């Protein structure tokens, strides 16, 4: 790939990601209103699956084709970038109110997944059995989500029925489900189009960024932890910016938590399932501890307070700057 082609592909990829994220967020917010699900839960499930597709595709493909360092660096680096930069920048601009225990519970689950992935990596590699364990954790989480959402839905139905029984008769034919009477197919298509746009745009951007980095002689593990991780995290970043501008910040926060959980279970799980992923000693001494520290800090902040504050966002951003400096010094 020539230099002009790489730069052009990078720009095209950015445009696709930004526009796709705009469609994606609008459709996801519509789903939250249509189903009655909290935005943070939609972000931690539906949106995070869509925005994590680039990480999953890039890491699995990298592992399969013999670039395990890129696969590992992409997953771990994306987790670090998601919290330190995406969430950090978001709450530095506008502090986030935390309602109830939904976010802190999801954060604890994310922390558990990160600890599990780290423990499995201590012996120096992630093998197929480790991939199976991580994917089993993903399956358990899906079962938990289905059961918890079913419980919430049953409670809502019961409350709605009690309110209807207590209310006086009405001749109005309006129903809650008529909020979007004729937009369901369009919103579903918009959701799919947005997901495809961010996935394709991310692939273009990652390919171009990797080519440019290789021209500069940056090592493979550093490319994975920085350039590729940032590139595949652009859907989360674009989603965060769009959600912040549209006043749906909790959706973005839920997306970060859900995406990190998927990075630790689905991305690392599938990557190690298709091929053994060796873990360098430097990653165990630097990358995994930084990731765990950021996730633990976010979990602590979410658990002890009712909001994520501006100073916490600044701390996250400062931590990423220091981490990146160390990375390139190591490279």
Name of the level-1 CATH class? Mainly Alpha
Overall residue-averaged pLDDT value: 78
Poorly predicted spans: 170-181
Percentage of residues assigned to helices: over 70%
Please give the radius of gyration in angstroms. Answer: 20 Å
Which strand order does the major sheet show?
1-4
Task: Give the CATH topology.
Answer: A middle domain of Talin 1
Report on this structure.
With 331 residues, the chain is an all-alpha fold. It has helices at residues 3-35, 39-64, 68-93, 102-121, 128-166, 184-215, 220-232, 234-245, 249-274, 281-304, 310-330, and strands at 96-97, 125-126, 277-278, 307-308. It has a two-stranded antiparallel sheet. Strands 2-3 form a two-stranded antiparallel ribbon. Helix 2 (39-64) packs across helix 6. The chain is globular, with a radius of gyration of 20 Å.
How is this fold's topology laid out?
Blueprint: H1 3-35, H2 39-64, H3 68-93, E1 96-97, H4 102-121, E2 125-126, H5 128-166, H6 184-215, H7 220-232, H8 234-245, H9 249-274, E3 277-278, H10 281-304, E4 307-308, H11 310-330
Antiparallel strand pairs: 1-4, 2-3
What attributes characterize this protein structure?
two-stranded antiparallel sheet; 11 helices; 331 residues; A middle domain of Talin 1; mainly alpha
Write a brief structural summary.
With 331 residues, this protein is an all-alpha fold.
